[in-house]
Amino acid sequence: MKGDRSSLRNLILYEVYVRNHGPNGTFDDVTRDLPRIKALGVDVLWLMPIHPIGQLNKKGKLGCPYSIQDYRSVNPEYGTLADFQSLVDTAHDLDLKVMIDVVFNHTSHDSLLVSEHPDFFHHNDDGKPVSTVPEWSDVIDLKYPNPLLEKYLIDSLCYWVKIGVDGFRCDVASIVPIEFWLKAKEQVEAINPETIWLAESVHTAWVVERRERGLVAHSDSELYSTFDITYDYDIWPLFLNCVRRRLPVQQYLEMLHFQKGIYPRDFIKMRCVENHDNARIMALAPTEVIGQAWSAFQVFNQGAFLMYAGQESGSTHTPTLFDIDKIDWGDYPLSSWYKRLFSIKKDELFVYGHQRFISADPVVQVEWVYGVKGLLGLFNINDLPEGFYCDLPDGEYYDLITNQQIVVTNKQISMPQTPAMILKINPDTSINLLDSPWLGLI
Predict the structure, then answer these.
(1) Using CA atoms, how far apart are residues 269 and 231, in angstroms rounded to an integer?
(2) Residue 435, pLDDT score
(3) N or C, which terminus of the chain has less Cβ within 10 Å?
(4) Residues facing 420 on adjacent strands
(5) Intervals of CATH 2.60.40.1180 along the chain
């Protein structure tokens, strides 16, 4: 058993869209890339939906992977079930876990279930199956509760676990009844008690809007009754606006602190700076240094971290979901930098330690303390060209990112055009949370 889920707090996840990952868009392409992915320091490979894609009312030339025809087969565009099994086996040989996307809020208009079980779907007044999200025109919603539907979906999860899948990223988990997820967890973990559950929890505004319409919408706090990890979408708009310099960073740090008090003690957020639904950080941030600074901050932040394939190449283009749109890998210019960050993340300090926010401006300063261990992260989110004040006694410190000695003189540190530093510190001389008067007031 996993026991205390906080043991998963320093996981590194890597998101792959098979269609756009390699030259052929196949499972075999991903399998060949696994040693490189593992070498980055990745723990879990998340594959976006691997199932056949609906063609009726599809979007784009090839359709969206989240419009699924059959939950129990693989998209022939990607290869065969044997090819997928080979991918899983190779990943396991490399000590990588494999997570697949499950989409249990909706199916494609031409899914197997439409003809076999029309009663599984949400219908309008004319008896036509529809989506409760009008802009999702390529899908139709499943309707809960329905014991036969729930058994079919849970049996599908068990099928993939028996093949070797180690976890599930559950699409829009917030709008599927929590009662279903509780049943699913119990039956799946009877097969593999180490199964990892990642919920795509949704934006707070959407939870409120759906509840006002009488539709299912669970908060993150409810989802933690089943899921190990939830998305960071509850405060994602704040993050985006801080990156764009439209809001003070202090507001974002205050909400990170707020999360610690409203969720279970062992809660885990999946931190990221980009994913398939959002702009690349290198396109969003005003400069490359700022983009890297925010990336380093989110790795250093409390919780698991997600890398979206192509991020290690500093990609600025978010591939479309609906057509072939290959990643431009180049020579993976940021790989060694991320590899170092991920190595630092493996310290037990990020699982059992305490995180304290010290300052938000002009440089974000965050401290981690665990026993005699201490780390101070300095994140150049304003792309400062020269030195700046830091909350450290004068002396020499070791930067874990560059493997260099850093000198602090008169509480000034030189950080020219450097995105981030992570310094070893003595917890006995570090700044205490109570010395930050603007924090802890909410």
Answers:
(1) 6
(2) 46
(3) N
(4) 379
(5) 356-435
Q: Report residue 26 as tokens.
A: 């196949």
Amino acid at 393: P
Successive 10-residue mean pLDDT values, the chain, 442 residues: 77 98 97 98 98 96 97 98 98 98 98 95 92 94 97 98 98 98 98 97 96 96 97 97 95 95 96 98 96 98 98 97 96 97 97 93 92 93 82 89 90 81 84 47 44
Q: Which class for 145: exposed (0-12), middle (13-18), buried (19 or more C-beta within 10 A)?
A: exposed
pLDDT tens per residue, range 296-328: 999 999 999 999 999 999 999 999 999 999 999
Give the per-residue pLDDT at 34.
98
Tokens in use for 415? 């950080």
Mean pLDDT computed over every residue of the chain: 93
pLDDT at 430: 56
The full 3-state SS of the chain, as one line of letters, equals CCCCHHHHCCCEEEEECHHHHCCCCCHHHHHHHHHHHHHCCCCEEEECCCCCECCCCCCCCCCCCCCECCCCCCCCCCCCHHHHHHHHHHHHHCCCEEEEEECCCEEECCCHHHHHCHHHECECCCCCECCCCCCCCCEEEECCCCHHHHHHHHHHHHHHHHHCCCEEEECCHHHCCHHHHHHHHHHHHCCCCCCEEEECCCCHHHHHHHHHCCCCCCCHHHHCCCCCEEECCCCHHHHHHHHCCCCCHHHHHHHHHHHHHHCCCCCCEEECCCCCCCCCHHHHCCCHHHHHHHHHHHHHCCCEEEEECCHHHCCCCCCCCCCCCCCCCCCCCCHHHHHHHHHHHCCCHHHHCEEEEEECCCCEEEEEEECCEEEEEEECCCCCCCCEECCCCCEEEEECCCCEEEEEECCEECCCCCCEEEEECCHHHCCCHHHCCCCCCC
The answer to whether the CB of 302 falls within 8 A of the CB of 269 is yes
Rounded-to-integer distance, Cα 142 and Cα 33, Å: 35
Selected from 2.30.40.10, 2.60.40.1180, 1.10.645.10, 2.60.120.330, the CATH number assigned to the domain covering 356-435 reads 2.60.40.1180
pLDDT of 264 reads 95
pTM over 0.90: yes
Top CATH class of 5-346 equals: alpha beta
